[in-house]
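Supplementary Note 3. Input sequence used for the single-chain structure prediction.
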Amino acid sequence: MNPPAMDHLRIRLARLHRALRTAVAHRAETTARLTRPDLVPYCVTDEQVAVLLDETDALSESLPESPTGPYVSEPYDSESAEPEAEADAERELRRRASADGTTLPLDALAARFGLTRADQDALLLVAAPELDRAYERIYAYIVDHLDRGLPSVELLVAVGARAPAARLARRRALGPAGPLRRYGLLRPYGEAPVELARELVLAPGVLEFLLGWGGDAGLLGHDPGEVVRPESPTPSPFPASDRLTRLGRALGSGDIDLAALWGCPPGGQADAALALARAAGRPLRALAADAEEDLRTAAALGAVLWIPADPLRGPSGERPAGELTAVLLRSRAPVCLTGLEPWRPPGLLAARSYAELTLPPPGLTDRRAMWSAAVPQLDGARLEDLAVRYRMSGGELRAVASVARAGARVAGDGRPEPIADHVEPAVATVTRGRGGSAVHAIVPRRAVGDLVLPEAQSAQIREIVSAFRVWPRIAESWGFARRSAHGGVKALFTGEPGTGKTMSAEIVTGMLGLELLKVDLSRIVSQWVGETEKNIEAAFRQAEESHAVLLFDEADALFGKRGEVKHGTDRYANLEVGYLLQRLEASDGLVILTSNLKDNIDPAFTRRFHFVVHFPRPAAPERRRLWRLAFPPEAPLGPDVDLDALSRLDMTGAGISAAARTAALAAADGGGSEIGMRHIVRGAARQFQREARLLRPGELGRYAELLGEDG
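The predicted structure, written as discrete structure tokens, is reproduced below.
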């Protein structure tokens, strides 16, 4: 039990007891003019209520005293204590609690949910019957109804206010839009013929929290429609431009009552709606469950109701668009629609005063400012690099900053390290691991040192990395975006199987510090009409939201040539290829395709690739490096291993890796302590067999006899 909480409740209950006595006296005066002696047995009499008031005063005074220590407070007589003395005692209690690093429970609730003094008194009046059932008889006396012993709106109004204007204000604060009921701290109980007779009870856990028995204030109440403005200084990716400001002001003044912001990705729609509400000078609320109730609450609070429109689109939308439209037609409360694509029901636009704005994605300058505000410790080069690589929403940036600060505190072991050193791991934590049903995430493990290619191809790989880093600058600062029909960087890797196409995609991703999302073609392609396009869209959207590189491995199945329509399915296959062309152009990220045969790719795709890299079979110098890299540094290679002889074998990088693994398994299975040349020859022979080729003894030179040992 928390002694300060008990002290605080005793002080506040003493004041409420005086208010109860005042309310009882007022009821007694009214009843005296109507009293009939024959009805006394069926009601609470004046004498009874006087006794009950004395009992509840005794309860308040008997709440446990604080033990000797920093929270000792002098007991006082609630009958004779002056309000000034009580206020002084409360201030002293609050000062001592602060000195001990704690917060009084009632103060914590008031700060968390924005409760006024009158709201706090109402909360305590509802809590009082949980402490002593005598309060129920007192409440029944005040409302003049023996069967209404639970605290009701009428009771809380009668005790909390006397003047008519104050009573109306109190009744409004106790309504569904008031903080006590909006956050669910007080919940309606049973049915009531009128709102004034509505009985109220505490939410679970509130009494225990008030008594200082522990708990989390944030779990006691929740307003599902509340949109809290972020405390972080991170600017919105949709700054208050002149057009957005004018639209917000028109919404705030009532010149329009339906505003739409299109072009917003899902992660940035909250920031866009907040920017519009800020320009309108109104709070923002989100559509939660019941559209009609949400609109009623927004209107009562003078707020803008934010409705994400993407779930409404299509016949299988997450929300019933028809029902929502019908409710919006009956209301004139200000509404903000957001979405990646427009949603414009004609009937709604005809009945409402509507205006819209298409928001462009944040440019490099905006992203640089956002990163600088989120993590001020970033230097110029690192700031530029992050702004180029990541197109983050305000919420994602705030998450990155928070994770980076926590990482700096943990790594510093009490002495925080520089936050900037923890930004990259924080970005990985926030953005990665979002693989969906159509893609799976690959964290790059290969480094640029693992890349074994001729110099021409190696230079192209490095050029892809450089192009992705500089494209945002030349697109936005140099104006090339206005001259180009598509953004981002697209690359096509062609070559025989095993020549390093997929590994190179992984290395490119690792050099950029991003995540690789590999498309699962078995889940992308569907026999049902239209499903393939939906799966393609989901894959691109997943890569864009995760700030990842998208890889279509063995892409011939999707990007194949369009042909003449001879069967019904040919038409739909051509439509899929056409949609893929459009989506590839629209992507601003890095997209890599791999194919064994370049000629299998539709020429329309080839024209849209910025880089086409052909991977040849490795020559002898590359094969020697591949053999050396195939064995980890820890692998016990025997002194007889001849890499020069092995490099004469015509094998790809994937084949060499497989042969090295087979050799290691053979050496371990034979009980040897090292991997010898005979094990590697055996592994190479097995790999030739898997490729339906024959390893001739002449290719092994003086090691030909080892081939005979393999049988």
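The first strand starts at residue 186 and ends at 189. The chain has 31 helices and 13 strands.
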